Amino acid sequence: MANVPVHEWTLLEAARRVREKEISSRELTGALLARIEALDPKVHAYITVLPEAAAADAAACDEEQAKGALRGPFHGVPIGLKDIFCTRGVRTTCGSRILRDFLPPYDACVAEKVLGAGAVLLGKHNMDEFAMGSSTETSFFGPTRNPWDVSRIPGGSSGGTAAAVAAAMCFAGVGTDTGGSIRQPASLCGVVGVKPTYGRVSRYGMIAFASSLDQGGPIARTVADAASLLGVIAGYDRRDSTSLDLPVPDYLAAVERPVEGLRVGLPKEYYEGDGLSPDVRAAVEKALNALTDQGAIVVEVSLPHTSFALSTYYLVAPAEASSNLARYDGVRYGHRAEGASGLIEMMSRTRAEGFGDEVKRRIMIGTYALSAGYYDAFYGKAQKVRTLIRDDFMKAFESADVLLTPTAPTPAFRLGEKMDDPLTMYLSDIYTIPCNLAGIPGISVPCGFSTEGLPIGAQLLSKPFREETLFTAAGAIERALPLRRVAPLEG
Amino acid sequence: MAITREEVLHVARLARLSLPETEVERLREQLSAILDYVKQLDQLDTRGVVPTSHAIEMGTPFRDDVVEPFGDREALLANAPDRQNDCFRVPRIIED
């Protein structure tokens, strides 16, 4: 490890070296801040960087450690958070003009837990506006670029987090996933991303998009890093009424477990469409071989309602979003339009000025689907189909412990390529969306590169609260396919 | 299913979004295309299917009905776009 540059250390390696006083938090944090200064003008993974606050916090970590006190497992290790998690006194924008200057009065549960574990906050990561997008191009603050090829998108909506992790501008980060927003950018940036079971990670202080689908989860460069970070952020929180009071297992211990006898299901519907690129198909096959070489058993399964998932999602998610985003009215916080003569005019102009095109489009779809006379035909129908999609998974898990699929149909596409065609953009999430509708956990783990050198990820899905199975299978793939995780990007 | 210009304007009013004239037609086309796509759900017979509102089954969580004051009143008010003392100021609500 002697020749590995500081910024390329894993999260666990960095934490161990600080703990064993091989490096100070000041030095470690300084190295990452320098890396951000050199590379982020090219990548734009951060909306807000906190050089002074991070340096001060690192110094405080060092002083406490000198007195023999460690804050937690990530003492003194610099990380980043998607700008959807409220951070007390630190601007939190959700990628939107409407929250451009918002200073949250409290920390999100995820922020509390990560900082409570001793991590130093480097800054807030760029994202699609209100997490609505698959490319990070809908951010009010401008797009993030893929560190493997800066002419391409990093995926989305947690594209800033995935790009920052892949470019080694933080040791790990926390993103959110409503229809694939952690797994798809992790796949496109060549890193590991976990969407936990719905209810596993508290949504308190996480700005809401679609409340029945949203989950926070880790993005990191190794399966072990992601497992240890999930162990920190998971757990019951009484401030989120959908948070579940179940013990948090030792996820890290699951990474090294053998996969012998593990039943790996291949849902045939995920491999049938002609939208799946041959490079992705070949890379996922390597992931499958990695598992079977280690003794896993292949089973064919069927998820017959897969082709209805995208439609279901594009009714359920916008309907919930239109309700959640009603709070941005220009009254108590956020942007307000100038010069309106009455309250309703002020609100309508505030929202027209404050929201971008994709957010408006989804608010309109959601409002339409919930409006009088259309509720049963659209939202009610989608909720019933959601049941059928969920039942498909539960049936598949009778014969399989884990499902293996591509994470995204293609490697990263070019900036601007899909911005004018919302439906084509939505297809980027075709393999990730059903998981959110069913509430089950999923992980994306790197499994190869395209002929053009772009990263490709494999997705694993399991029963609710069986994240350990995902870490076991992903760990086996990672060991068999050692792939470069830090993008070759020069400042 | 094509939606009409009037429907776009009606939904925009419900959603409190003022739309410039140039956006109405574009949104009408995009919304019609998305609604056309999602109408594929009509192919499925869902009679007797129970709708899912929460994917993970759980009971209704109860808590004691106790007021917990928020400690930092000033941090809340500091975000106000227009503030008068400890109040959020808004434009006129009641028309003359």
CATH architecture level-2 label of chain A = Alpha-Beta Complex
Assembly state:
heterodimer
CATH topology of the domain at 5-43 in chain B: Histone, subunit A
Estimate what percentage of residues of chain A fall within beta strands. 5-15%
What's the total count of β strands of chain B?
Answer: 2
Helix content of chain A: 25-40%
Strand order of the largest sheet of chain B: 1-2
Shape of chain B: flat
Regions with little confidence, pLDDT below 50 for 5+ residues of chain B:
none
Largest sheet geometry of chain A: 11 strands, mixed
CATH superfamily of chain A: Amidase signature (AS) domain
Q: What is the domain tally of chain A?
A: 1
What is the C-level CATH assignment of the domain at 5-43 in chain B? Mainly Alpha
What do we call the CATH homologous superfamily of the domain at 5-43 in chain B?
Answer: Glu-tRNAGln amidotransferase C subunit, N-terminal domain
Report on this structure.
The complex is a heterodimer of chains A (491) and B (96). Chain A is α/β, with parallel strands linked by helices and 491 residues long. Chain A has one domain (7-303, 392-480): Alpha-Beta Complex (Amidase signature (AS) enzymes). Chain A has helices at residues 11-19, 25-43, 51-66, 109-116, 159-166, 183-189, 223-233, 251-255, 269-272, 278-293, 309-324, 343-354, 357-370, 376-399, 422-426, 433-438, 467-480, and strands at residues 46-49, 78-82, 120-125, 172-177, 192-195, 215-220, 263-267, 297-301, 402-406, 442-449, 455-462. Chain A has an eleven-stranded mixed β-sheet, sandwiched between helices. Chain A is globular. Chain B has three helices and two strands. With 96 residues, chain B is mainly α. At the A-B interface, α11, α12, α13 and α14 of A face α1 and α2 of B.
